[in-house]
Design goal:
With 103 residues, the protein is an all-alpha fold. The protein has helices at residues 18-66, 74-102. The protein starts with 17 loop residues before the first helix and ends with a helix.
Length: 103
């Protein structure tokens, strides 16, 4: 059995000495720490933005309710308006028929 240990070759195909290999590992570690701090800051910004948007959404829903629109679904209101319009049209037609038969 051989007790001699050989350095693994680096990306460029050269074998580095222990100091150079250690220096590369330190540089990689520093780069990873910088990336981690940058990502942590970005996560904090996104969390703050999410909180702000949630608060704005809540305030807008409260304003809609305060304006007299209890439902936030405009489709229901549109269907209700359409039903009123149809009822008014039928009522007008019946009133016109009644006037025509009386006079």
């Amino acid at each position: 059995m051989s007790e001699h240990w050989e350095e693994p070759p680096e990306e460029d195909g050269l074998t580095l000495g222990p100091e150079e290999a250690l220096q590369r590992e330190i540089e990689k570690s520093k780069a990873l720490k910088v990336d981690r701090l940058r990502l942590r800051d970005e996560i904090e910004k996104l969390k703050a933005e999410t909180t702000d948007l949630t608060r704005k959404n809540h305030l807008l829903k409260e304003r809609l309710t305060a304006l007299g629109n209890p439902s936030a679904n405009p489709e229901k209101e549109s269907a209700f308006s359409r039903n009123i319009l149809i009822f008014a049209l039928v009522f007008s037609f019946l009133a016109l028929l009644w006037f025509m038969t009386k006079f």
